[in-house]
Amino acid sequence: MAGWIGAVVVALVILVLVVLPLVSLALRQRWVTRQGSAFECSMRLRPVAVGQLQADQTPSTNWVLGVARYSHDRVEWFRFFSFSPFPRMTFRRNGSRVVDTRDPDPAEAVALYDGQRVVRIAIGHQESIEVWELAMSSDSLTGFLAWLEAAPPGTAINGF
After folding, report:
1. What is the three-class DSSP state of 122?
2. With CB atoms 3.0 to 4.6 Å apart as the test, which of 20, 95, 118, 151 could cross-link to 155 if both were Cys?
3. Which regions of the chain does DSSP assign to beta strands (E)?
4. Tens-place pLDDT, residues 73-102
5. Res. 32: pLDDT tops 80
6. What pLDDT sits at residue 55?
């Protein structure tokens, strides 16, 4: 009888160790999307070198699926599969501008959600500019562009 109870306890512990992370991920995702207007948004984890902004740049497949949300004067980007409650990247409205948009190359399209467009965003000011690439649906892109242009009166639009 004691061996049987021990096996049940071990099975329950294993079940909890498998189910708890899945439930935790689901609760985190729900929390992220309920804190503001959220949309599916993939991100290339490395910034693009400023000298490589030409359209002939070789695409990379180092995209990470994620969710972005609007939060006052910034867009916060979260990895989709992460336990962290903090955004991985934050884009402030007054320091960001869209450089260009394009369709993903076939090598990139495999790693992205269906129908997403790649958007290059310059962050920072003249002395230190980083260019990041996001991928989002056309509808999300329209909303993102409207949000960037909707700076409050008296604010420098896009920081430039």
Report:
1. strand
2. 151
3. 38-44, 63-64, 66-71, 74-79, 89-92, 96-102, 116-125, 128-137
4. 888 888 887 777 788 888 888 888 899 999
5. no
6. 46
